[in-house]
Amino acid sequence: xxxxxxxxxxxxxxxxxxxxxxxxxxxxxxxxxxxxxxxxxxxxxxxxxxxxxxxxxxxxxxxxxxxxxxxxxxxxxxxxxxxxxxxxxxxxxxxxxxxxxxxxxxxxxxxxxxxxxxxxxxxxxxxxxxxxxxxxxxxxxxxxxxx
Length: 147
Ligand SMILES: CC(C)(COP(=O)(O)OP(=O)(O)OC[C@H]1O[C@@H](n2cnc3c(N)ncnc32)[C@H](O)[C@@H]1OP(=O)(O)O)[C@@H](O)C(=O)NCCC(=O)NCCS
Description:
Layout: E1 3-7, H1 10-17, H2 20-24, H3 30-38, E2 42-49, E3 52-62, E4 65-73, H4 82-96, E5 101-107, H5 111-119, E6 123-132, E7 136-144
Parallel strand pairs: 4-5
Antiparallel strand pairs: 1-2, 2-3, 3-4, 5-7, 6-7
Coenzyme A binds near residues 82 and 106.
């Protein structure tokens, strides 16, 4: 499986729009992602296999801090290191922009994602109670890139 990572464009978004719920996970809808592509503070990337989008991820930055907004792999492509590739690329982008700290929120029950972030040395720094749909708590995690 040859996976290529590149910048997300409108064509990629058009390709995945109708599949966001079924084949990825409905984190954000198309309109929000389209706005993100126009936002100069946001950087979105896709993972492509044979030019088909099999994952996407993004960060939103302010000054020297960046927040990981999304990292999603197509359901039948999970557990093949594509999430790892996307996260590594986000970290690379953040470092190239002299970001000091990367932050994110993750559902306390999302062990797969928590494992992925811990592998890259993200540390748990707090919790937001009932953050997801007023039910599940979010864990706040950060990774210091420059000391
Ligand atoms: C989280 C997600 C992006 C991971 O992507 P992925 O391509 O499946 O993950 P990878 O194959 O790169 O695995 C990375 C690490 O995640 C963890 N992991 C992956 N699958 C796992 C599983 N089934 N059980 C436990 N941990 C798992 C492991 O730590 C793994 O590293 P290792 O293989 O060296 O042990 C993917 O599962 C996904 O899209 N989930 C739904 C969206 C989501 O929850 N995003 C995170 C929002 S904060």
